[in-house]
Amino acid sequence: MFNFILFGPPGSGKGTQSVKIAEKYDLAHISTGDIFRKNIREKTPLGIKVQNIIEKGELVPDELLIEILEDAIDSFKGKAGFVFDGFPRTIQQAKDLDIMLNKRNNEVSLVLALEVNDLEIIERLLKRAEIEGRKDDTREVIENRINIYNNQTQPLIDFYKEKGKFKSVNGIGAIDEIFSSICREIEKVI
Ligand code: ADP
Which of the 8 DSSP states describes residue 168? Predict the structure, then answer.
């Protein structure tokens, strides 16, 4: 199986590109942010638990991620692999993911980061706020999310570099150009 992690700061375009990658390579797209937002909309027990955390731009506790991921992984049968979008976001989550995949005789194949600077990210997220009205896209919450990304998520770069699985591409430009760069990296590996 091809298990792909699309990595990058909030607003780097992971969601947009993940959908295209999943379609082209017949992968199951797992977006933890989408799963949480769906649960919040449907007011499930999980949704009620995480709503406040997400609106503040904070990270949902790692234990909750494991449960969601196990369910999501097992609900896709017959796909060629996964594209993980928004997960893992902490070293603990990366270790949990390794355990989950190993149990299924699998492993992470490639981690690819979309490189986008802070200024561009803030601009994109503020624009998205006008269009989609996500509660976590206010300037204050955006800054919190970027700080959390820098402190808790960026250390994953070294974690995956040590395993020889980390690559990055420029995340600024036309959606299709960025998609082509991603595909070039994927095709070196599969
Ligand atoms: P973005 O990439 O734009 O920040 P996401 O849709 O990936 O947005 O995530 C939205 C929010 O959902 C995050 O700010 C966080 O509160 C929560 N979340 C999503 N994935 C995770 C995760 N792997 N660990 C902890 N919290 C998460």
Answer: E
- In angstroms, the CA 102 to CA 164 distance is 17
Domains along the sequence of the chain with CATH: 2-189 (3.40.50.300)
Which residue among 17, 40, 89 is best mutated to probe the pocket of ligand 1, counting the most ligand atoms within 8 A of its Cβ?
89
CB atoms within 10 A of CB 38: 13
Rounded mean pLDDT, 38-63: 98
pTM: 0.96
Neighbouring CB atoms inside 10 A of 170's CB total 11
pLDDT of residue 77: 85
User: Ligand 1 mean position to 184 CA, how many Å?
Assistant: 27
